[in-house]
Amino acid sequence: MTLSQLAKVIGADAPYITLIVDKLEAHGLVERLPHPEDRRRKLVTLTTLGQEAIATADAILLRPPRAFSSLPAQDLNRLTQLLTRLVDADEPEDLQ
């Protein structure tokens, strides 16, 4: 994505996104590449290290709390349905 696309998706202004991308790039998590159609713009892309960081974060954040193991399967299924509806309703309109 370009910086302006990232700003739009995240809902932040461009200068803030530039600061964030600068920090991510300094840590080797993203890189800026030339836009194939417009030399004035840059594309921000994940590096291998960035993809690994996301996988690690997902493994931590997507691990259910231990208390969930005490719920019967039927309750877990219903909870999953409800949470899925909430997540879907919270997505930006242009991503749905």
What does this structure look like?
- This protein has 96 residues and is mainly alpha-helical.
- It is 55% helix and 10% strand.
- The protein folds into 2 domains: 63 residues, Orthogonal Bundle (Arc Repressor Mutant, subunit A), CATH 1.10.10.10; 28 residues.
- It contains 4 helices and 2 strands, in the order ααββαα.
- β1 and β2 form a beta hairpin.
- α1 crosses α2.
- The longest helix has 18 residues.
Gist of the model:
With 96 residues, the protein is mostly helical.
Proportion of beta-strand residues: 5-15%
The string of secondary-structure elements, in order, is: HHEEHH
Looking at the structure, the CATH topology of the largest domain is Arc Repressor Mutant, subunit A
Radius of gyration: 18 Å
Under CATH at level 1, the class of the largest domain stands as Mainly Alpha
How would a textbook summarize the main sheet?
Answer: 2 strands, antiparallel
State the total count of DSSP E strands. 2
Could you give the order of strands across the largest sheet? Answer: 1-2
Level-2 CATH architecture of the largest domain: Orthogonal Bundle
Structural class, please?
mainly alpha
What is the arithmetic mean of pLDDT?
Answer: 91
Contiguous runs where pLDDT drops below 50 for at least 5 residues: none
Shape: elongated
Q: What is the number of domains?
A: 2
Q: Helicity level, as a percent range?
A: 55-70%
What is the CATH superfamily of the largest domain? Answer: Winged helix-like DNA-binding domain superfamily/Winged helix DNA-binding domain
